[in-house]
Amino acid sequence: MDLHGIGPSGAARLLVEVGDITRFPNRAHFASWNGTAPIDASFGEQVRHRLSRAGNRQINRVLHIMATVQLRNPTDGRAYFDRKKAAGKTSMEAMRALKRRLSDIVYRCMINDAVATAAGPGGYRGTPTGFSVTDPHPQAGSSEKSLPGPAATQDRTLLPMVF
């Protein structure tokens, strides 16, 4: 959620759909999987690329929303889009290029997070050392420990029955 344009639902969608980011050997494979890798649509002297309609549509939608949010605000994404437009690209071509760039940024961010969490116990950053849910001998707090023996029974006096 540190990336501009990714909210809680977008971050959750990325985590659920991508799963283990390390299954993608590089950013090009990730872009091909999410549908932001350009497809050659050249003919004759005209060299063009178009956005792929293949790939994971949910992730592509998250990246599209991220790109739209960045275009609405003065961000690095907006500056990149404006540079592409100034270079002679159409709006759709500049948007395709921005989505591919955002795909690379998301990939790099997820790889960095995976590397950071791989070193920490329990799979979460900030988890104290010596505590892990996956530890073969998990530590139990005082409220989770069983009692040392059976509970002592107390004799009860019966109340007389009234008829």
User: Globular, elongated, flat, extended or rod-shaped: what is the shape?
Assistant: elongated
> How large a portion of the residues is in β-strands, by DSSP E?
under 5%
Largest sheet: 2 strands, antiparallel
The number of helical runs is 5
* Number of domains as seen in the coordinates: 1
Rounded average pLDDT: 80
InterPro entries: Transpos_IS110, Transposase_20
Region (Disordered): 128-154
Protein name: Transposase IS116/IS110/IS902 C-terminal domain-containing protein
Pfam family, one: Transposase_20
Task: Describe the protein.
The longest helix has 29 residues, at 91-119. With 163 residues, the protein is mainly alpha-helical. The N and C termini lie far apart (72 Å). It is built from five helices and two strands, in the order H-H-E-E-H-H-H. A hairpin with an 8-residue loop joins strand 1 and strand 2 (49-51). The chain has one domain (8-123). The model has no long low-confidence stretch (mean pLDDT 80). It has a two-stranded antiparallel sheet with strand order 1-2. The chain is 46% helix and 4% strand. This is Transposase IS116/IS110/IS902 C-terminal domain-containing protein. Residues 128-154 are annotated as: Disordered. Residues 2-80 form the Transposase IS116/IS110/IS902 C-terminal domain.
